[in-house]
């Protein structure tokens, strides 16, 4: 790797130009300049190697530039880049819709629509639910994250940095309670806490939103930006049953949890519930912009032709990449590999917990793993500063690492699932040194 690009600029010069020409509103967790990615590794302009525990915020389950994805995108680009599906159809869109409908849980008839980003998928799920039910209300959950558009900001829980100063927000959007077992009241068992949260969820539909006015309830099966919070099977099933009873569309937001991240194609499979609609994006297309809504055929058909879509929605390049991703997950056993990676992370983090009182909890579903950093294990008070310091130190020492959580005190793991045991061990050793 050279210290300069073909333009002859150094990293410092690129950083200066970034500050001069790129919006301050765009965050940069690491100010190195990426020039090559391969599997679970990134290389910067100076030839420095980084182990990737961030995966472009959960977008690279099959890793950077997987050869099969690269080959599929190259071939597609040579044949056809963009006719616009609503202008003239092409096979990859239809083939991908068929495959995802087959993978999605439930034995009902399904259809799919493709879009560009996760926020677009959520927006369209809301549109579909409203069209189908002829209702207006939208319910998400505390600590949930669904995007940065006006509607999805309205559905998102964390004010800073996602919502602060960007209002007014969409109306008829409500946030229901969601379990957080580590932060439950002292002396309460998990079963008692489930009773408490389920009762609070039911009461919410008395105090805040009448069920007959609600079009959809949108749930992340595992909360992502909210801190990798995992609900109980009982809670998820209660929400699904409540929606069915009241004619509410139950939407599983699988944008960060999908495509082997939790050891299943969709995280909702772990909870024994069947959603009406599923939103997908991120690791679906290995880094190309692609998202979708998969769900009950009668719901996807509620909108008339032309009422859903977008100029670049379901691009041939994105669909080609996604078809390759689905093959890779199957051929390389990434659902099983996800569980293996998650277990290694959990075992190591529990060892850290013995030595560091500021590690409050270790939790995971598959390879979607998190370590909660607290000031005191008894009070469980969040320690955002320490979590940020750990992530910063890791980044300075060759490991891309992210935080999360409503209080910013969660160290989260979004490793590519093609990561080797040796790369994983090396990354964990960097975190241990940071601790």
UniProtKB/TrEMBL annotation:
**EC identifiers of the protein:** 2.6.1.19, 2.6.1.22
Q: In which pathway does it act?
A: Amino-acid degradation; 4-aminobutanoate degradation
Q: Which Pfam families match?
A: Aminotran_3
The UniProt GO MF terms for this protein read: (S)-3-amino-2-methylpropionate transaminase activity; 4-aminobutyrate:2-oxoglutarate transaminase activity; identical protein binding; pyridoxal phosphate binding
Q: Which cofactor does it need?
A: pyridoxal 5'-phosphate
Give the start-end ranges of region Disordered.
1-28
Q: Which residues form the signal peptide?
A: none
Compositional bias per record (Polar residues), positions renumbered to this chain: 1-14
| InterPro entries, per the entry | 4NH2But_aminotransferase_bac, Aminotrans_3, Aminotrans_3_PPA_site, Class-III_PLP-dep_AT, PyrdxlP-dep_Trfase, PyrdxlP-dep_Trfase_major, PyrdxlP-dep_Trfase_small
User: Sorted alphabetically, which keywords does the UniProt record give?
Assistant: Aminotransferase, Pyridoxal phosphate, Transferase
Q: Tell me the enzyme class.
A: transferase
For biological process, the GO terms are: gamma-aminobutyric acid metabolic process
Query: What is the name of the protein in this document?
Result: (S)-3-amino-2-methylpropionate transaminase
């Amino acid at each position: 790797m050279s210290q300069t690009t073909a333009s002859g600029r150094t990293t410092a010069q690129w950083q200066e130009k970034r500050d001069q020409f790129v919006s301050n509103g765009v965050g940069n967790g690491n100010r190195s300049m990426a020039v090559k990615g391969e599997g679970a590794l990134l290389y910067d302009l100076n030839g420095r190697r980084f182990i990737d525990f961030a995966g472009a915020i959960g977008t690279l389950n099959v890793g950077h530039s997987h050869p099969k994805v690269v080959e599929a995108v190259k071939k597609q680009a040579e044949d056809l880049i963009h006719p616009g599906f609503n202008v003239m159809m092409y096979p990859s869109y239809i083939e991908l819709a068929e495959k995802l409908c087959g993978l999605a849980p439930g034995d009902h008839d399904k259809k799919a629509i493709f879009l560009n980003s996760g926020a677009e998928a959520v927006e369209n799920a809301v549109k579909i639910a409203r069209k189908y039910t002829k209702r207006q209300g939208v319910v998400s959950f505390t600590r949930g994250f669904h995007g940065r558009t006006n509607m999805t900001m309205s559905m998102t829980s964390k004010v800073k940095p996602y919502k602060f100063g960007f209002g007014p927000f969409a109306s008829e959007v409500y946030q229901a309670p969601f379990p957080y077992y580590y932060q439950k009241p002292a002396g309460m068992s998990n079963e008692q806490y489930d009773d408490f949260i389920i009762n609070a969820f039911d009461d919410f539909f008395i105090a805040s939103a009448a069920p007959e006015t609600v079009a959809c309830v949108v749930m992340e099966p595992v909360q992502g930006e909210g801190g990798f919070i995992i609900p109980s099977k009982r809670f998820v099933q209660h929400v699904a049953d409540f929606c069915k009873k009241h004619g509410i569309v139950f939407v599983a937001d699988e944008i960060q949890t999908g495509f082997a991240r939790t050891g299943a194609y969709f995280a909702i499979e772990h909870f024994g519930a069947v959603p009406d609609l599923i939103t997908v994006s991120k690791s679906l297309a290995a880094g190309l912009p692609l998202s979708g809504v998969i769900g009950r055929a009668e719901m996807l058909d509620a909108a008339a032709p032309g009422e859903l879509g977008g100029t670049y929605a379901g691009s041939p390049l994105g669909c080609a990449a996604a078809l390759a991703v689905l093959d890779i997950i199957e051929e390389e056993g990434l659902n099983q590999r996800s569980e293996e990676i998650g277990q290694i992370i959990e075992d190591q983090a529990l060892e850290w917990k013995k030595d560091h009182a500021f590690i409050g909890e270790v939790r995971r579903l598959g390879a979607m793993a998190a370590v909660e950093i607290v000031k005191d294990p008894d009070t469980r008070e969040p320690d955002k500063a320490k979590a940020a310091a750990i992530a910063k130190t890791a980044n300075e020492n060759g490991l891309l690492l992210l935080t999360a959580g409503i209080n910013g005190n969660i160290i989260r793991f979004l490793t590519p699932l093609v990561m080797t045991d040796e790369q994983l061990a090396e990354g964990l050793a960097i975190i241990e040194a940071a601790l």
